[in-house]
Specification:
Elements lengths: L8 H5 L10 H8 L8 H11 L11 H7 L4 H14 L5 H36 L5 E6 L2 E6 L8 E4 L8 E4 L5 E4 L1 H4 L5 E3 L4 E2 L4 E4 L2 E7 L5 H10 L6 H31 L4 H10 L1
Antiparallel strand pairs: 1-2, 1-3, 3-9, 4-7, 4-9, 5-6, 5-8
Helix pairs in contact: 4-6, 5-6, 6-8
Length: about 280
């Protein structure tokens, strides 16, 4: 097997070749590795190319995230109405309007915050299933290491109870029983034979075997699923349509308020208080 047949590691990273489907012998060719595993030096070099075998956790202030939902066109209209309410010389009814508008603003922001936070919790729950440790063959010796150091081409050992640390192809040995329900929704453990692919985040329920790592981190089936869950807050086509309708309504309201101000004060000579009440009703 000439390693010159293989693609570059950058091409492997970009998933130029389908390592899940090709014969296991070709997997070793493409990954430029052997069943004796990688050296520590080669592992470190590949870690620079593929990155650590973990998913990034976005950390942000929940307070700032909540306040962010108060900064959008619809909230601007409500905030403007609140300012108009207290501009009426602080009289009783105006303070009631001010408080009422603020309550509506907080409720609207709370609903949006809870919905997005739930999506974030779902992604965090997926990430919690990642294996913290793994048994890997480096420099011809088996050792237990952090799963984060794994790279494509590593040889790992899997036994009963282990969480699969990365996407891999099984080598020679007895079939495994793998629980991958969290990833695929299958209710019962599935049988995986030598040559089959196993997914990061699934659990070994029966058997013991070695495997060659073919994908790590965000490039695993698990990583792609977590990314999809984490990106559910992206605006879809239907949401864009609703936003466009909302923006049209807001522009109509602002235009109507400007016309009403011109009619009430310069033309009809209304009192200040009457004008404020009309604007709030608008």
């Amino acid at each position: 097997m000439g390693v010159e047949k293989g693609l570059s590691l950058d091409e492997i990273k970009n998933e130029t070749v389908d390592l899940e489907k090709i014969p296991i012998e070709e997997v070793f060719d493409q990954l430029k590795c052997t069943k004796e595993g990688l050296s520590s030096e080669e592992g470190a070099n590949r870690l620079q190319i593929f990155g650590p075998n973990k998913l990034e956790e976005k950390k942000e202030s929940k307070i700032l995230k909540f306040l962010g939902f108060m900064w959008n066109p619809l909230s601007w209209v409500m905030e403007t109405a609140a300012i108009i309410a207290i501009a009426a010389k602080g009289k009783g009814p105006d303070w009631q309007d001010f408080i009422g508008i603020l309550i509506l603003l907080v409720i609207n922001s709370t609903i949006s915050f809870v919905e997005e936070n739930n999506a974030g919790n779902a992604a965090a729950a997926l990430m919690a299933q990642l294996a913290p440790k793994t048994k890997v063959l480096r420099d011809g010796r088996w050792s237990e290491e952090d799963a984060a150091i794994l790279v494509p081409g590593d040889i790992i050992s899997i036994k009963l109870g282990d969480i699969i640390p990365a996407d891999a192809r099984l080598l020679e040995g007895d079939p495994l029983k793998i629980d991958q329900s969290a990833l695929t929704g299958e209710s019962l453990p599935v049988t995986k034979n030598p040559g089959d692919e196993i997914f990061s985040g699934s659990t070994c329920k029966q058997g013991e075997i070695e495997a060659v790592v073919i994908a790590t981190g965000v490039h695993t089936f698990f990583g792609k699923a977590a990314h999809l869950v984490d990106s559910t807050n992206q605006v879809g086509h239907f949401q864009k349509v609703l936003t466009a309708i909302g923006n049209f309504c807001i522009c109509s309201i602002v235009t109507g308020m400007i016309i009403e101000i011109i009619v009430m004060y310069p033309l009809q000579k209304r009192k200040y208080r009457d004008g404020i009440d009309n604007l709030l009703c608008f």
